[in-house]
Amino acid sequence: QEQLVESGGGLVQPGGSLRLSCAASESIFSSNAMGWYRQAPGKQRELVAVIKSAGGTEYVDSVKGRFTISRDNAKNTVYLQMNSLKPEDTAVYYCNVAYVPMDFWGQGTQVTVSS
To answer: Is the distance from CB of 61 to CB of 41 less than 8 angstroms?
Structure first.
């Protein structure tokens, strides 16, 4: 059964850090570039970070230098380390196959950056 389970979100002050985790079923995780997406209220979902199966990474400009994506192939898990968080990072964060996501999405994890 396919699954995507995101966790690690929360409320954090500006400048703070969070580490998100996404446990995926092997059928989704293996051989795929994985991505972290986010959707802020009233906005479209956007892809913010990508990690390819061989480990190469890509980031949207707004998070470069602050976010780090990584993956543990043995655990079928992808992570997003978020540092120097800003209020504009507030969103629900999801993981999925990068670039062309599946129709299936997990529940996401809420990240709120506020003082």
So the answer is: no
